[in-house]
Amino acid sequence: MTTLTDVQPPAELPAKHRADVATALPPARGQSFPKLVTIELRKSVNTRSGRVLIAAILLIAVAALAWQFTHLPAGDAGFDGFLGAAATGVMLILPVIGVMAMTSEWTQRTALTTFTLSPRRVRVQLAKFVSAVLLSAVVMTAVVALALASTALAGAVTDHAASYAGLGGQLTGAYLTVALNVVMGAAFGAVIPQTAVAILAFFIAPTAWSLAGPALFKDNANYLDVFGALGRIAERDLHGMVPETLTAVAAWIVLPTIVGLWASSRREVK
Amino acid sequence: MITVENLTKRYGSTTAVQDVSFTVEPGSITGFLGPNGAGKSTTLRMLTGLTPPTSGIARITGKRYADLLNPGRVVGVMLDAAAQHPGRTGRETLLLNASLLGVPKGRVEEMLEAVGLSHAAKRRVGQYSLGMRQRLGIASALLGDPAVLILDEPANGMDPEGIRWMRGLLQDFAARGGTVILSSHLLGEVQATVDRLVVIGGGRIVANGSLQELLAGSGTVVRGLDPVGLNQALTAAGLQLEPIADSSLRVDATAEQVGRAAAAAGQILLELRQSDGAGLEDLFFQLTSAPAAAAA
Question: What class has domain B220-274?
Answer without folding.
Answer: alpha beta
